[in-house]
Amino acid sequence: MNTACVSAHRTGRGDMRSGRPATIAGLLPFGVGVALLLLGPIGVTGVLAFTDYDAIRPSRFVGFDNFGELWNDRVFRIAVWNSGAHVAASVPLRLAGALGLALLLHRPSRRTRFGRIAVMLPTILPDAAYALVWLWLLNPLYGPVNAIASRFGARPGWFSDPSLALPAMVLMGAFQIGEGFVICLAARQLIPPTVYDVAAVEGLRPVQVLRRITLPTMAPTLLLLGLRDLGLAAHNSFSAALLITDGGPAPYATTVVPLFVYRTSFEYLRFGYGAAATVVMLVATGMVVAAQLLVIRRWAWRTSSTDRP
Amino acid sequence: MAALVWQSVYRSFGKAEVLRGFDLAVADGEIVAVLGASGCGKTTALRIAAGLDSADDGQVLIGNDDATGWLPKQRGVGMVFQHDGLLPHLDVAENIGLSLRARRVDRAEIDARVAAVAKLVGCHHLLDRRTQRLSGGERQRVALGRALVRRPEALLLDEPLSSLDLEARVDLRSVVVEAVRSLGTTAVFVTHDHAEASEVGDRVAVMGGGAIGQIDTPEDLYWRPVSLTIALLAGVRSLNVLPVEVCESGWCYGPFSLAHDAWPPWARRSTPSTEHRPVVHLGIRPEHVQLVAPSAGTVDGTVSQVLHLGPDQVVTVDHSLGRMTVRTSSARRSAVGDRLAMSVNPRFLYGFDEHGVCVGTPDRPG
Question: What's the pLDDT score for residue A107?
């Protein structure tokens, strides 16, 4: 039995090392999926962006006309502004929330286990159900939030007030942080306990422990999480904007770029124009991600080199 | 610097009683090595002294003050851990100066003190290095420097060398002793390695069953152990233990006997203790057994293993009643399968009663 195990193990390793065909075969299903579901649509979108196509008449090549129109489109500008504001507010807020809760709940005990489940719950709810919960929570007349607010003489119309609708959406997103929370929790638990014993014996105060030990050690994880959240920001804003506010209140208070794309393409049937907006969004996100990657790479290089430059 | 005292400290984790009346007094400026098997509570005792854990009962005194309930930082003790706990994002100098920076000591003074302590522990050439690429030995030097830089009242060392390779371990023992001595710091050095405890400690405290079994100089632990357990622990190779009975001719070990007039001096003195607590085990250290040519009346057997240790060799001999380990000069040639007899000088016998309490120890030669 034992020898069989050992030899099987060896064969496995041998294949990994020498057999490129085996590696390729293993990657094939994933590769096909990526090609069909990701690269294909991106390519099609890239081509569509330069055409005028309404799914009824044959498409017509229009060069950069779509991009020129976008540049002058007031609604698109508002959508870009809204998306930017949403990302700028929600990414740091979500990161801080995930980190703070992870630091609060990293110790194993019955109470923290309960807390961890509570943090995860909003994330595992379907988007539509989650939106319904918030519609009720922030209902201006019957919602519990306004029941408390009205005691202080305020009765904000969360999703109906143009200046409050986007902040309300950011607030909604700030509770769906389960994945980031789990990652922060894992990163925190990877820090060896000896480090904290040293800090206690050497007399570091809690703030110093956070600033000198916990945050610097978790920094690579936090940077990656921020990156991921940026990429996901579009997805996060879309369902709430579609399900709750439908881009309103009037005129365009919560019209974010993904909603603009959706409307242009599937409601106004201007697929070419929508594709052009998608390309702009992809390029903008790609640039921000690339900038962050650059920062991370430089940072990683700095910490892994033997000597300081 | 200050004396450090544990007074009948108790600590349980769930149902496991780790410390059961742990008593240990370390004098000002003394180095005590605490020797014990893994999981015997050595680390817990240190953590309680450092304030990282709290006792269920009992006190810890630092200087003359009852420090029970003090926060770690109020105690002014330093600690070196088995895993160094260096911070990867800081360089060596920043790691050593961590506690001084936390106390907002003046920058120039930090640099001077870090440089001085780095020289003391032999890592001054590494000060601007990041810690990831340091060897295990270098990392523990840095950890030692970090613990010493603020001149702690007492230094607690929790198996600091046990994760290092042998060469670095031997090197660092003297580094630890010299650094601690030159600062005059009181130190408690926890280890499971007898050789390490003997080399580092002024006194060695042997721990077992959640308390200190014996605390003595390394010499006295070897010559005057209080129990069979401790006698088995001290020494490079384990003690040979022979079950004996008192019979008409003296002590009987199977067909062999040791007449009264050949008994070691402690047994002939026939103190009340030996009368009331008859010897049931005799102990003889491998280095006190001689290999001789077989003749009538000798215990003879066959060599089953030979270990060469350079100048010495350890020969295991299987005989009709069991197995004996003998340590002799390697000048004498021995091979597996040789027929040999063993001769024991009764002067070097240890005696133990039925509870394993030592009732007699050899007279030291010279």
Answer: 86
A203: closest CA of chain B, how far (Å) = 4
- Whether residue B198 contacts residue B28, with contact meaning beta carbons closer than 8 Å, is answered with no
What would the two tokens of residue A169 be?
A: 């959406």
| Integer Rg of chain B from CA | 25
CB B242 within 8 A of CB B254: no
DSSP A54: -
pLDDT band at B138 (very low <50, low <70, confident <90, very high): very high
Please state, in angstroms and rounded to a whole number, the distance separating the CA atoms of residues B22 and B45. 8
Q: How confident is the model at residue B157 (pLDDT cuts 50, 70, 90)?
A: very high
Average pLDDT, rounded, for chain A: 81
Q: What is the mean pLDDT of chain B?
A: 87
Residue count of chain A: 309
Spatial separation of the C-alpha atoms in residues A141 and A146, rounded to whole Å: 7
In A, minimum Cα distance to B49 occurs at: A201
Residues of B whose CB is below 8 A from A198: 79, 81, 85, 98, 146
pTM above 0.95, yes or no: no
Q: Does B91 touch chain A (CB under 8 A)?
A: yes
Structural tokens at position A174 = 């700030």
Residues B322-349, mean pLDDT to the nearest whole number: 86
Question: What is the 3-state secondary structure of chain B?
Answer: CCCEEEEEEEEEECCEEEEEEEEEEECCCCEEEEECCCCCCHHHHHHHHHCCCCCCEEEEEECCEECCCCCHHHHCEEEECCCCCCCCCCEHHHHHCHHHHHCCCCHHHHHHHHHHHHHHHCCHHHCCEECCCCCHHHHHHHHHHHHHCCCCCEEEEECCCCCCCHHHHHHHHHHHHHHHHHHCCEEEEEECCHHHHHHHCCEEEEEECCEEEEEECHHHHHHCCCEHHHHHHCCCCCCEEEECEEECCEEEECCEEEEHHHCCHHHHCCCHHHHHCCCCEEEECHHHEEEECCCCCCEEEEEEEEEEECCEEEEEEEECCEEEEEEEECCCCCCCCCEEEEEECHHHCEEECCCCEEEECCCCCC
CA distances from B252 to A157, B256, B302, B358 (A): 100, 6, 22, 19
Strands (E), chain A: 51-52, 60-61
**Any residues with CB less than 8 A from the CB of B63 and at least 6 apart, and which?**
B2, B3, B153
| Distance in Å, alpha carbon of A227 to nearest chain B alpha carbon | 21
Asked if residue A97 lies in contact with residue A177, where contact means CB atoms within 8 angstroms, the answer is yes
**B contacts of A217 (beta carbons < 8 Å):** 87-89
A98: pLDDT confidence band, cut at 50, 70 and 90?
very high
Q: Which ipTM value was assigned to this complex?
A: 0.81
pLDDT in tens, A67-84: 888 888 888 888 888 888
For residue range B278-327, what is the model confidence (pLDDT) as tens digits?
788 899 999 888 888 877 767 888 899 898 888 888 999 998 888 889 99
Q: Name residues whose C-beta falls within 8 Å of residue A158's C-beta, 6 or more positions apart in sequence.
A: A138, A140, A143, A145, A146, A164, A165, A168
Q: Give the residue on A whose Cα is nearest the Cα of B133.
A: A306
Q: Quick check: helix, strand or coil at residue A305?
A: coil
Q: Kindly report the nearest CA distance between residue B206 and chain A, in angstroms.
A: 25
